[in-house]
Amino acid sequence: TAAAFDNPDYAAIVIHNYRWRLSLADGERRYNGLEQRLAVRPVIKVPTITLDAERDPFTAQPGDGSSYRNMFTGAYEHRLLRGIGHNLPQEAPTAFAQAVVDVDYFS
After folding, report:
1. pTM for the full model?
2. Is there a single domain that holds both residue 63 and residue 79?
3. Confidence category of residue 30, pLDDT binned at 50, 70, 90
4. Residue 65, pLDDT score
5. How far apart are CA 84 and CA 58, in angstroms?
6. Is the pLDDT of residue 5 over 90?
């Protein structure tokens, strides 16, 4: 990840991403079709483990996953990672990797 900081476009890309997430900027038009498909909130049928970081400042309130549980029809598990912030793969690499490995057992 540190190598990304050397990209001269890094700051502009990150700022644009947050503006887009807050609906303050347009996204890439080439992805509009995918955005429209996702906007209808299709049910996810594959086995899934969702992760919630307890200290993520961008999440209103970490929880038990029940607020979006109905979006998953396959095997499902939710994990709350205590003491973890915004970047799960970097802050909790073992727990993140374990979730990837564990979801395979659902199949």
Report:
1. 0.74
2. yes
3. very high
4. 81
5. 12
6. no
Digit-coded pLDDT (tens) for 11-21: 999 999 989 98
Query: Rounded to the nearest 5°, which phi and psi values hold at 47?
Result: -55, 140
Cα–Cα distance between 69 and 22 in angstroms, integer?
A: 24
Handedness of CA 79, 84, 86, 91 (dihedral sign): negative
Same structural domain, 37 and 47:
no
Domain of 88?
43-107
